[in-house]
Amino acid sequence: METESEPYVRLATLRGLHQVVADLNTARSLADTLQTVADGIVTGLGYELSAVNLVRPDGDLVVAAVAGSAGAEALMAGRVGSRVSWERRLAMADQWGALRFIPYTEGWVLDNDDVPQWHTAGPAPRFPDEWHPMDRLFAPMYTAGAAGGELLGVISVDKPRNGRRPGAWGREALQMYAFQAAIAISNARLRANMQRALVRLEREQQALRASEESFRQAFEYAPSGMAIAEMGGDQHGRLHRTNDALCRLLGRSASQMRRYSFSDLVHPEDIGTLLRTSAEGGRAELRLARRDGTYVWVSLRNSVVADAADGPRFLLTHVEDIEERKRHELQLAHRASHDSLTGLPNSAELRARLSSRLCGRAPGSEPYGAAVTAPYGCLDGFAEVEGVEGPAGASAYGQDGSYAHGFGSEGGPDHAPDCGPDYAPDEFGCGTHDGAYPGHVHAIAPAEDGPDDGTKGLAVLFCDLDGFKAINDRFGHHTGDAVLIEVAHRLSNGVREGDTVARLGGDEFVVLADGLTQADAEDLAVRLRSAILPPIRVDGRAVRVGASFGIGWAGCGMSADEVLHSADQRMYVEKRSRAKAGRRAG
Predict the structure, then answer these.
(1) Which residue, 164, 370, 441, 498, has fewest beta-carbon neighbours within 10 Å?
(2) Residue 255 contacts by C-beta under 8 Å, 6 or more apart in sequence?
(3) Is the pTM higher than 0.85?
(4) pLDDT value at residue 111
């Protein structure tokens, strides 16, 4: 079963991977991109050495970038390995998904081929997954991002900092990084071609016709979407021209695309992102609508171009499909925030959800209105950002109220949300008060001493299984895991939609349920305990567990740990107050 610290390790790996992937898009040239790819392996993925081997026009691979060792760079940079030798390496290697690994026991046959390398001899590994100096790990890069495309290059890595061969999580991170590196290198080449075309359009008036043809071909046949929009005038923001790749991506013909601006196609929740994207050099990641009503994640990158030296200006937008990358990011985020055995939110996610409902100001002490209760996790109103202004040149709007970015049609929001005199502007256009944001609904803990007065609050039910350890010890972890999965299923089926059931670890679960009175919470605990009691069949054997519940209440002014500790203590009080026979179901 997963250790409690593993989700935090995964979150750290995810943050590092996101950072180095983001750095790939900041390089200005192909050479900078290649070096950034090599540096990202060392700074973000835990290896001491890396090299990027790029396929040349003649098919051979040249070492285009090295990171981690000046000596290795002096030895390898600029050297060429034949395509035949590289294909031999990739063919004989073990397949780790899209990665290729050659253990030291088999790699000795490659010592004398013409591929540049820095490997040295070393002692035999002391344990099975220890990294050996002669181990070789490669991450092939393809033009289409997958093995079905043309080989673009190969990333070589060596010397993991932890001294071990990468596990499943490390392999997936390296594989995703190679996928993104291939896209970044392909885009760097595309940008270089586009920049050369733009320079010719501006500086070579006498060869304008040839330059326009070059631009047309680069635009029409670009592998990713491209669009040209009007800037200024009555048709400001209207799409003037789109390439086949963008039309295919959005499922619309070129004639249909000319009826829209990007602001007509963007997802309502992403309109604020679009409006803050500047025309010159602006970048944004958002969702655009397809013809069938679905949305696709894209990356937009803007440039301003002129039809002639003194002619009208247009907005050139590069639209890259990042749906696959976003899907992988969501999968990684889900794995980092959910228990791998039961699929329930884990301890970190539980604390995050609980903290989102709590602020530092106790109810009744705030100066801006009475506290009320609402369903757990309700944060309506933060899906849209209206009228955000910024510095000149980077604003979502021009000084005359028009869209400076060139995405929108005429008109648009011209006001900021009114948050009251007590708030200083922040990223939402409003400020904060001791962790309470505008629209925040205070969580109020009902009075636990005395009769139930009908006050509704956020109930925290701490559940500990009775008799689980005996089942685990007697029948093994396989049976114990099956019991935990079934208990998680029964708890999830016993709560309302919108309530949270999380696994803290071991045989401990927590339920968050908002809008309950004391009587409601006690009834819920009884129902959940009754749902757990029926026998659980595992491999033809019926086993039973019981459950002890402690009911705590979350209130603003408390921390998530304080709330969970209170519910935990009440669970132990409840467990001790019942006879052992009553606690354990069998």
Answers:
(1) 370
(2) none
(3) no
(4) 78
